[in-house]
TrEMBL record:
The keyword Nucleotide-binding does not apply. This is Transcriptional regulator, LysR family. Pfam families: HTH_1, LysR_substrate. It comes from Terriglobus roseus. PANTHER family: HTH-TYPE TRANSCRIPTIONAL REGULATOR YBHD, NITROGEN ASSIMILATION TRANSCRIPTIONAL ACTIVATOR-RELATED. Gene3D superfamilies: 3.40.190.290, Winged helix-like DNA-binding domain superfamily/Winged helix DNA-binding domain. Belongs to the LysR transcriptional regulatory family. Keywords: DNA-binding, Transcription, Transcription regulation. Residues 1-58 form the HTH lysR-type domain. GO terms for cellular component: cytosol. InterPro entries: HTH-type_LysR_regulators (IPR050950), LysR_HTH_N (IPR000847), LysR_subst-bd (IPR005119), WH-like_DNA-bd_sf (IPR036388), WH_DNA-bd_sf (IPR036390). The keyword Ribonucleoprotein does not apply. GO terms for molecular function: DNA binding; DNA-binding transcription factor activity.
Amino acid sequence: MDLFALETFLAVAEERSFSRAAVRLHRTQPAVSQAISKLEGELGEALFDRAAREASLTDAGEVLREYAQKLLNLRVEARHALGELRSLHRGSLNLAANEYTCLYLLPVLDRFRRVHPRVKVSVQRSLASRIPDDVLLHSVEIGVLSFKPEDRALKSIVVYRDELAFVVNPRHPMAKTEEVSIRDLGGQHFVAHNVPSPQRDKVFEAFRRHRTNLRIDVELPSLEAVRRFVELGNGVALVPALTVERELKSGALTRVRVKELQMERKLRLVHRREANLSHAAIEFLRGVREYAEATGGSYCFLPERGD
């Protein structure tokens, strides 16, 4: 099974057409068909349903597709690694984060870029639930998560301790109060992020446990939108403290302590346990540790126990 055959297979699967795949690969259609037939013969399985109008994958084809992508990603990874051996001052750092965890990356990436300005940095935006798979499939080298991954093939390092923050507009009646009870929130109009998360579930459970109604009047697709909507004087919100640091310092928002909602959320950097990390990734992790040692506070560098 050679990589060209797998590349041809993926092209047909993605284009859903032998002829379009041939154009994409700059080959003739008979050559593409022959490569697929040879691959099917080698595997002893039909990979495409040729009775369909488009080249749709069989069950065997669906299984092969995941492994083919892994192998081709590994080829790209190998080329990058060899390139770095030839030129140590070059390289790339590929990360995955979501809207929230990307905020953690900004100061550490700023430091990294000042020290290594020639390393290309790419942060892929991804749903938190997909980031472990992105790392395992070699799509990115390091991911940033707000939960501990279950897969033992991943190694994680706690790098930031965040808190849940109850925030209001400075003109809100509660803005003059340092601390409230969760029961005081029963009549409030909440603005919420509409993406499911373990933290969201914990908040719902806390309100249920204290027999308090959580009234969500507005749900928005991003934490940035939630923050700005509350700034405008619309309701109140529970958000990660990291996402409102600037607004709290400027006075655009006010944080009020809720004694029953003291929830810590740990941000983690994760990578494949058995991976040979690139020089850029190794330097990035070293920089993260040094930044945590110099900055302190919420920043830390704590490999998980057993890692």
